[in-house]
Specification:
It is a single chain. By secondary structure, the chain is an alpha/beta fold. The protein has a single domain (about 1-245), classed as TIM Barrel (Alpha-Beta Barrel), CATH 3.20.20. It contains 10 helices and 8 strands. Strands 1-2-3-4-5-6-7-8 form an 8-stranded parallel β-barrel, surrounded by 6 helices. Helix 1 runs parallel beside helix 2, helix 7 (about 135-145) packs parallel to helix 8 (about 175-190) and helix 9 runs parallel beside helix 10 (about 235-245). It is globular, with a radius of gyration of 17 Å. The chain starts with a strand and ends with a helix. The structure holds 1,3-dihydroxyacetonephosphate. 1,3-dihydroxyacetonephosphate binds next to strand 8. 1,3-dihydroxyacetonephosphate binds near residues 161 and 226.
Length: about 240
């Protein structure tokens, strides 16, 4: 199975999202072995869900809180995300780690809360350039993956997104991706046992129609988590097609 996930971050308005759905639907043919999800800003979740659900496209939230309800202004519970039609939630994106103080400790609780509400956690991990230069890539990935230690046996996806490749137009090369994904696979086996062998590991960081085929050819790459290029319905449809071929 392959997975292609659009992370729209804080982009697009209602009219853009609606137009995206119309255009994307024209160029998209579902295929059984490729799962496609869109993670729009929260206010656009319903737009995407209502317009693309029948085409088999699922929606993911970009974050969620671990508490079930209460006085947490500005937050969304996993139950609310599920209620809005989502089947998954992106957790631990590097932008949340770097700009909003997301910690591994909070992520342990978030993974647990998502699974309890039958939401698929898509855990993002990745090193900064400074960490890579200090040869800490593997230890950073290991620490970030350790949040899965208490996870239940429900479905989990992981995305390897080197921070230095996000929004920079600079993808990791196939050797770097292969090495990181092989390490992640081994760690997942240690943490999750047999299930760790089948958790899809996506790559993210300047993925585009021009480089996606090559990225997908790397062993242990099960798909892409796409930022900027996923805002263009034609480009996103093209990437889905590449994953299907
Ligand atoms: P870009 O594809 O814009 O580099 O973003 C990647 C990303 O952060 C997806 O979560």
């Amino acid at each position: 199975m392959r997975c292609v996930v659009a992370n729209w971050k804080m982009n697009l308005l209602y009219a853009d999202a609606s137009n995206f759905c119309t255009e994307f639907a024209k160029h998209y043919t579902p295929a059984e072995d490729v799962r496609v999800a869109i993670a729009p800003p929260t206010v656009l979740l319903w737009t995407i869900h209502s317009q693309l659900r029948e085409r088999g496209i699922t929606t993911f939230a970009q974050n969620g809180h671990f508490e079930p309800k209460g006085a947490f202004t500005g937050e969304l519970s996993m139950a609310q995300i599920r209620d809005a039609g989502c089947s998954g939630v992106i957790l631990g994106h590097s932008e949340r780690r770097q700009m909003f103080g997301e910690t591994n400790e909070a992520l342990v609780k978030k993974v647990h809360a998502a699974q309890e509400r039958k939401l698929l956690p898509l855990l993002c991990i990745g090193e900064t350039m400074a960490e890579r230069e200090r040869e800490q890539t593997f230890s950073v990935l290991q620490t970030q993956l350790s949040v899965l230690k208490g996870a239940s046996r429900g479905p989990i996806w992981v995305a390897y997104e080197p921070v230095w490749a996000i929004g920079t137009g600079r993808t990791a090369d196939t050797y770097q991706i292969g090495e990181a994904h092989a390490f992640i696979r081994e760690e997942l086996r240690v943490i999750l046992g047999e299930q760790g062998g089948s958790v899809p590991i996506l790559y993210g960081g300047s993925v585009a129609p021009q480089n996606f085929e090559q990225i997908l050819s790397v062993p242990e790459v099960a798909g892409g988590l796409v930022g900027g290029a996923s805002l263009d319905p034609m480009a996103f449809a093209q990437m889905v097609k590449i994953a299907q071929s």
